[in-house]
């Protein structure tokens, strides 16, 4: 019913080919992964992606601060800034998802009637953030084009999020992008709110 085909062709495919097609953001591959496989790594993948993002931010924070004060070195040794970056990354991602859920619930309330619909969409969004794992090679192979690489990774994650929403709720291409756009606005709004409150976000 969701695939709108007689049979899911990916049942016979090798997992590597399915992964490659998912990286290419093919809707059928997303449908296969979400509906016809039993993957339960959503939470672990989310935490690992947030750790990658927090490490990248922490690394940039260390590079920008060339203070040789011993107290500052002790502060970095304790890694409090890393935990703060992890909290900020978690806050931003949660705000982004809330913005998406609000938009989709407002635009298509019939699609999100049951709790299971929300859970399926949340799992799909968590799985579709796998592109953040590309932050690891971006940090390892640090070069002059790192900001450009980070921008491409962000765009790739947003495209993956769009496909996940589209496949999960069986929508056209426009509404998922509208939800993602509102999610980004909501995320930036929450960050600005905390900054106005005096929090170092």
TrEMBL record:
The keyword Membrane applies. The chain crosses the membrane at residues 85-106, 118-141, 148-168, 174-194. GO terms for biological process: intracellular sterol transport; regulation of plasma membrane sterol distribution; sphingolipid metabolic process; sterol metabolic process. It comes from the Eukaryota. It is found in: Endoplasmic reticulum membrane. The keyword Endoplasmic reticulum applies. InterPro entries: Arv1. Keywords: Endoplasmic reticulum, Lipid metabolism, Lipid transport, Membrane, Transmembrane, Transmembrane helix, Transport. Its main location: endoplasmic reticulum. It holds the Pfam family Arv1. It is a multi-pass membrane protein. GO terms for cellular component: cortical endoplasmic reticulum; endoplasmic reticulum membrane; Golgi apparatus. Mediator of sterol homeostasis involved in sterol uptake, trafficking and distribution into membranes. PANTHER family: ARV1, PROTEIN ARV1. Belongs to the ARV1 family. This is Protein ARV.
């Amino acid at each position: 019913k969701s695939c709108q085909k007689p049979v899911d062709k990916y049942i016979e495919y090798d997992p590597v080919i399915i992964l490659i097609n998912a990286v290419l953001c093919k809707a059928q591959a997303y449908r296969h992964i979400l509906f016809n496989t039993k993957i339960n790594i959503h939470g672990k993948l989310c935490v690992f992606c947030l750790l990658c993002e927090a490490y990248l931010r922490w690394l940039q924070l260390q590079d920008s601060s060339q203070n040789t004060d011993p107290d500052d070195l002790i502060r970095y040794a304790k890694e409090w800034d890393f935990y703060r970056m992890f909290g900020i990354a978690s806050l931003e991602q949660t705000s982004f998802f809330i913005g998406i859920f609000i938009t989709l619930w407002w635009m298509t309330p019939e699609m999100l009637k049951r709790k299971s619909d929300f859970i399926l969409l949340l799992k799909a969004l968590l799985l579709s953030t796998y592109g953040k794992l590309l932050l690891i090679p971006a940090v390892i192979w640090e070069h002059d084009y790192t900001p450009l690489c980070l921008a491409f990774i962000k765009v790739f994650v947003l495209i993956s999020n769009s496909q996940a929403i589209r496949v999960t709720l069986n929508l056209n291409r426009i509404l998922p992008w509208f939800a993602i756009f509102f999610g980004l606005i909501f995320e930036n709004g929450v960050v600005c709110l905390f900054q106005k409150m005096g929090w170092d976000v």
